[in-house]
Amino acid sequence: MTDTSGGSAPSRRSLIGWGGAGLALGAAAAGGAVAMTRTGGDVDPAGSGSGGAIAFHGANQAGIATPVQDRLHFAAFDVKTDDRAEFVQLLKDWTEAARRVTAGRPVGEGAFGGLAEAPPDDTGEALGLDPSRLTLTIGFGPSLFEKFDLAERRPEALVDLPKFAGDNLDANRSGGDLCVQACADDPQVAVHAIRNLARIGFGKVVMRWSQLGFGKTSSTTPDAQTPRNLMGFKDGTRNIAGTETDRLKKFVWADAKDGTAATAWMTGGSYLVARRIRMNIETWDRTPLQEQEDIFGRDKGEGAPVGKAKERDEPFLKAMKPDAHVRLAHPDSNDGATLLRRGYSFTDGTDGLGRLDAGLFFLAYQRDVRTGFIPVQRSLSVDPLNEYIQHVGSAVFAIPPGVRDKDDWWGRALFSEEA
User: Fold this and answer.
1) How many CB atoms lie within 10 A of CB 227?
2) pTM attached to this predicted model
3) Under 8 Å between Cβ of 107 and 128
4) Could you give the CA distance from residue 158 to residue 64 in angstroms, rounded to a whole number?
5) Is 261 exposed, middle or buried (0-12, 13-18, 19+ CB in 10 A)?
6) Contacts of 142 (CB under 8 A, 6+ apart)
7) 178-184 and 135-140 as β-strands: parallel, antiparallel, unpaired?
8) Do 208 and 104 meet the contact criterion of CB atoms below 8 Å apart?
9) Residue 363: in which H helix or E strand, if any?
10) Beta strands in 156-285, from DSSP E residues, in sequence order
11) Percent of the chain with pLDDT over 70
């Protein structure tokens, strides 16, 4: 990221001290750092290149309907402060930092040029790198609403997920009061963003768990080549496109009429289910091709559904085996339930037994978890793919609407008394 702070300028932290307040100094400049704006679910064309900036301000948060980037750093945090005002200030500080890094600018006064006796405002590893289409998306977990006496503002759609057949969840990789999803085409840019938010939040929040991802497994741009998961199959052929405003409105964006006046703050937001799915790669790799294709309901080369020639041909579900993955997950098998997926592959070393700790970090956005992820996941309880995968981490979050302008901040509608 290019340092535009001017290295010779004296640091003003000597005047105001450090506690996150220094971030506000660049608010006016950072607010105009990106000229583009997003409206509704529209994709910002300026962010289509690998190095461009994607607008931070908009009715919806970026990183949902935005064209999916190549890399992910996802982090869940637990809140340690019980001071509501202190937590609100943290959200404001995080918002300002997010404005800057998504525009390719350093946090605060930058990584150098300030007081030698004080830590720099930015960690510096992204100096000289372009924005790489970085998006930062924040979410609030169910437990956050208990911590700040916000139970009446917890949306009904933000339900605790039930235990599903085959779950083997690790508590250390599940849950969280907050989440931040950083997506970018450069992994260092994504990691830099999460690292700086964690640093700013020191003493107020602590990272509970995190996940790095690569090789997007779903796309919101259907005109591009459909990505493949680690099992070698195309994934997300029928995913919602970022330009399909009607489908986004129907299946992804929360609406004021979905809840009560107390939960209207979620209008323009969404709900995220994150699942860490471990794949038994070694077993899968010894499975015959025909069996692999029968399990998915698509051929491995073209990605065409059973009996069809092309990937995007309309599936004939009855031609597939009754428990084929595509058939079980299809909206026609789940009363129309439709998810917007933004998953990533991961490899985290080995499991100590010579097997790769690898799989899919599943991310799905929806208008209501009760009519989205839950019925689909229940349908998949008889999926033969379960022989090769296991859900080992899980979390659900309410994703608030976007930050509309330089005076707005993440979660303002939830925490403002007048909301």
Assistant:
1) 18
2) 0.88
3) no
4) 17
5) exposed
6) 154, 158, 159, 160, 396
7) antiparallel
8) no
9) strand 356-366
10) 178-184, 205-216, 270-279
11) 87
